[in-house]
Amino acid sequence: MSEALTCSRRQPRELVENRVSFAGPSSELSIYDTYLPAERVGLSAGELLYCGMISGRKVMHAANDYSADFLPQESFVLAPGERVAIDFPEARIENPTSCLTVEITRERVEKICAQLNGTAPLQREFEDWRYRPDSLIHTRHSPATQSLLQRLVSTFTENSDDRDLLVDFGISELVVRMLRQQTRSFLLSLCESNPEVNGLGAALHHIQQNLDQPLDIDLLGKIACMSRSRFFSEFKKHLGCTPLEFQQHLRMEAAKVRLARGESVTRVCFDLGYRHLSHFSRRFHQQFGISPKQYRDSCAVAIAQ
């Protein structure tokens, strides 16, 4: 992202949310730099707005009293018509707070949903692929998503004959990744409230309720009333990952909640089925960019303040 960032910082017109934009087909990339501390700066979305932090820290205040730190390698998605207020507690002239946004038209999102419904339809009980504006997306990037965002910045800012086509490919991938993230959260919520929604839902609920146990794919297939191969296929289509990757994701999210409450790293490790503290710590750092102990201690400091 270096060239675009260098361009945005040459002669900033504004010291709070200085913006440099690049238009693409059905989309627009913007890079924002803020050089001074500020509070409650408004940001609204005319279309779907995918925000990715680059450096520094923001505090995002959204609807329903939601307030949270927004940190590098995290995404925050605003639905069309939504508005948030942003604090910049650490912005400095010599160390600006920076983020990027990718605005994507509703028509483009709906077209991608229609393509997914045609090529990879969800089971009837799980509804169709669609963007759910009432479902908040604030998540840490996977390595693949981080790489995609870096590639999108390079593509938006380059001058080549293939630029618009490559931008369109990148936007499609970004929307698919966002939809899969949101659909995964929707399926988890649905299966928690109705474990017997269908066979796949029952298998998902079983994984959720037994995070301390090794995965038994044959058992999960029986619960889902599917052969081993069909279970893998349906799982990947609906969740966008393997059962083992899904279990690891749930374990890390559970670890994050428990550590934030101040629980012992060792206890959380073994309660979630890890046999070695080093393995647990490595997984946690890969997922959140911080060690379990550092995360627990940072939460304790935040509560004390």
Description:
- With 305 residues, the chain is an alpha+beta fold.
- The longest helix has 31 residues, at 163-193.
- Helix 3 (143-157) packs antiparallel against helix 4, helix 4 crosses helix 5 and helix 8 packs parallel to helix 11 (292-304).
- The protein is 49% helix and 20% strand.
- The model has no long low-confidence stretch (mean pLDDT 91).
- The chain contains 11 helices and 10 strands.
- The strands form 2 sheets. It has a 6-stranded antiparallel beta sheet with strand order 1-2-9-4-7-10. A 4-stranded antiparallel beta sheet has the order 3-8-5-6, with no helix packed on it.
- A hairpin with a 5-residue loop joins strand 5 (58-61) and strand 6.
Regions with pLDDT < 50 over 5+ consecutive residues?
Answer: none
Shape type = globular
Strand content: 15-25%
Annotation field: number of helices:
11
Largest sheet: 6 strands, antiparallel
Class inferred from helices and paired strands: alpha+beta
Largest sheet strand order: 1-2-9-4-7-10
Nearest-integer average pLDDT:
91
Span between termini: 35 Å
Question: How many individual β-strands?
Answer: 10
Radius of gyration, rounded?
A: 21 Å
Order of helix and strand elements from N to C terminus: HEEEEEEEEEHEHHHHHHHHH
Q: What level of helicity do the residues show?
A: 40-55%
